[in-house]
From TrEMBL:
It comes from the Bacteria. One of its GO terms (molecular function) is ABC-type transporter activity. Pfam families: ABC_membrane (PF00664), ABC_tran (PF00005). InterPro entries: AAA+_ATPase (IPR003593), ABC1_TM_dom (IPR011527), ABC1_TM_sf (IPR036640), ABC_transporter-like_ATP-bd (IPR003439), ABC_transptr_CydD (IPR014216), P-loop_NTPase (IPR027417), Type_1_exporter (IPR039421). It is a multi-pass membrane protein. The keyword Manganese does not apply. Residues 18-299 form the ABC transmembrane type-1 domain. Gene3D superfamilies: ABC transporter type 1, transmembrane domain, P-loop containing nucleotide triphosphate hydrolases. This is Cytochrome D ABC superfamily ATP binding cassette transporter, ATP-binding and permease protein. It is found in: Cell membrane. GO terms for cellular component: plasma membrane. The keyword Transmembrane applies. The lineage of its organism: Bacteria, Bacillati, Bacillota, Bacilli, Lactobacillales. Keywords: ATP-binding, Membrane, Nucleotide-binding, Transmembrane, Transmembrane helix.
Length: 578
């Protein structure tokens, strides 16, 4: 139940050490409480004056108060540790996302990744707060009570010792069942999260295609799967709680039966019998509490395991091998890829195979191919977001991959859907250059054609835009992304992944007029389906099934009359064999 990775966190051993000491003291106090409650009841049963019983009652009440105080103290010790640990986990998880890049997000899904960083952290806090105290209680309290009972009547202690492993075995059997159901519930919850996020992100497209109702049904079916999985987990939890309560109650009843017979035979005193009878429920209480909270914390345990699995992923240690020899990318700088391959995790099929490229200076390179041909994967590899195998050289320096800090410091990225942060216009535009002045930002806004839009904003550069604030159209988002690039004069390699794919042709042509001047003094690697961009490219790379099948200038490719011509005609809707 306890993940050993908990002990990696600062303060874990100290917190558990203090918990152990407090719990040991509390176990002794429970014994004293039970003993003097028995003495008080026995004396009162024998009609002893209240004054004569006052001392025993005072000790009982003092023990009771101390016990409650120790419970508060244990929470006081654990709650700050749990908060500190979960805060640290959240911070490290977000940092790990940034270091591992978009690959880890795509593997887990956006919904699950976000859920882990927010809801998952809350579940982990609940897991740490509930489980650690119960685990320590179960490890100490029953055995202190058992030892004391053995000093009174060893036969009853032996019976309690015998029944305890039976209950543990029963818990394990039901625990495995509950764990399996909770795992399915957790997987369905992550699936629901991913479906929900994907639906929100693609809502406009689904509406345009008339598929929103069909996809809503899909989300409904996934949510129903999650509901049924949750009810299945709850049913096992309720069943196991009932069965555990039944077993412990039955065990206490058996103890009471034997105590009654011993009292009738005169082989045990009333005080001793009452002490054992009062302490027997206390003996089973820690395991009952642990079992009850076990089901309540399974999601937290799963979330903790997933978070730790991500944090345990190996980070690159060889990302400083490339040392830039010049200040930024220059006209004589060169990138060479030879026989580079890449396969996605858990896939035997190569997504990129035998990639051979030589890119120099401020060339404009167009990547063309059908959907799934490997254009985006190649861009991710060039951006250092994924690491393939093969020979890679930057400015003559051989490196194992392109996740090199100095290389990535040259890059700017313009995707299909630029992300607009929920932040000010100023912060969104100065993404690459936080030191940019307001005058520079305003100048760039004018150059990218956003002056009219900007003049309508109530708070100027301080206006909050993005989700939940002032919205931007697709064309405006692309112009903001272009403005980010224009503000940074030091990064001279631009990766563009079909940046105009979702724009109408009129908006695209207007944006093209703004974009082309930006290409000057930059190396541009431009993935596109739009043929009109190819006339502005110095070199065209044609991809099919993850491989480069042709490359050259537009004139050379047309003269070759190969796959590029076939692809070009297919894009135009022309059947060359007609």
């Amino acid at each position: 139940m306890l993940d050993p990775r908990i002990f990696k966190f600062e303060g874990a051993r100290k917190a558990l050490g203090i918990l152990t000491i407090l719990t040991a003291i509390q176990a002794v106090v429970i014994v004293i409480q039970g003993r003097y409650l028995s003495v008080s009841l026995s004396e009162l049963w024998q009609m002893t004056p209240l004054k004569a019983v006052a001392l025993a009652l005072s000790i009982f009440l003092s023990a009771f108060i101390i016990r409650q105080f120790l419970t508060v103290a244990k929470n006081y010790v654990l709650v700050p540790f749990a908060k500190q640990t979960t805060d640290q986990l959240q911070k490290e998880l977000i940092q790990k996302y940034a270091k591992l890049g978009p690959t880890v997000i795509s593997q887990n899904g956006t919904g699950k990744s976000v859920n882990l960083a927010i809801e998952g952290i809350s579940q982990v806090n609940n897991y740490l707060t509930l489980v650690l105290i119960k685990f320590i209680d179960m490890s100490i309290v029953p055995w202190v009570i058992l030892v004391y009972i053995a000093t009174i009547k060893w036969e009853h202690a032996l019976f309690l010792l015998f029944i305890y492993p039976v209950i543990i075995l029963f818990m394990i059997i039901l625990g495995y069942t509950a764990q399996a159901k909770a795992d399915r519930e957790y997987d369905r919850f992550n699936r629901l999260s991913n479906h929900f996020v994907d639906t929100l992100r693609g809502l406009t497209t689904l509406k345009q295609l008339g598929l929103s109702k069909r996809y809503a049904k899909n989300v409904y079916e996934v949510s129903e799967d999650y509901r049924k999985a949750t009810l299945g987990t709850l049913s096992v939890g309720i069943l196991s709680t009932f069965a555990l309560d039944f077993l412990t109650t039955l065990s206490i009843a058996v103890v009471a039966l034997f105590l009654g017979m011993a009292l009738m035979d005169g082989t045990i005193s009333l005080v001793a019998g009452l002490t054992i009878l009062i302490l027997a429920p206390e003996y089973f209480l820690p395991i009952r509490n642990f079992a009850n909270d076990y089901h309540a914390t399974l999601d937290g345990k799963n979330a903790f395991s997933d978070i730790m699995d991500i944090l345990d992923q190996t980070e690159l240690t060889d990302n400083h091998l490339y040392q830039a020899q010049q200040s930024g990318w220059q006209v004589d700088s060169q990138l060479v890829l030879e026989n580079v391959n890449y396969a996605y995790p858990n896939s035997d099929q190569l997504a990129l195979q035998d990639i051979n490229l030589s890119l120099t200076g401020f060339e404009r390179i167009g990547l063309v191919g059908t959907s799934g041909s490997g254009k985006s994967t190649l861009l991710n590899l060039l951006g250092g977001f994924i690491d393939g195998t093969g020979d890679v050289q930057i400015e003559g320096q051989r490196v194992p991959h392109l996740s090199q800090v100095d290389w990535q410091n040259n890059l700017q990225v313009m995707p299909q859907d630029p992300y607009i942060f929920h932040d000010t216009v100023r912060a969104n535009l100065a993404f690459y250059t936080p030191q940019a002045t307001d005058a520079e930002i305003l100048q760039v806004l004018q150059r990218v054609g956003l002056e009219t839009w900007f003049n309508q904003l109530a708070d100027g550069l301080s206006t909050i835009i993005g989700d939940g604030a002032v919205q931007t159209s697709g064309g405006q988002a692309q112009r903001i992304a272009l403005a980010r690039i224009m503000l940074d004069q030091d990064r001279r390699i631009i990766l563009m992944d079909e940046p105009t794919a979702h724009l109408d042709i009129e908006t695209e042509m207007q944006l093209k007029e703004t974009m082309l001047p930006v290409f000057n003094q930059h190396m541009v690697i431009f993935a596109t389906h739009r043929l009109h961009w190819l006339a502005q490219m110095d070199w065209i790379v044609v991809m099919k099934d993850g491989a480069i099948v042709e490359q050259g200038t537009l004139e050379e490719l047309l003269a070759n009359d190969g796959y590029f011509v076939e692809l070009q005609q297919a894009m135009k809707g022309v059947n060359r064999h007609a």
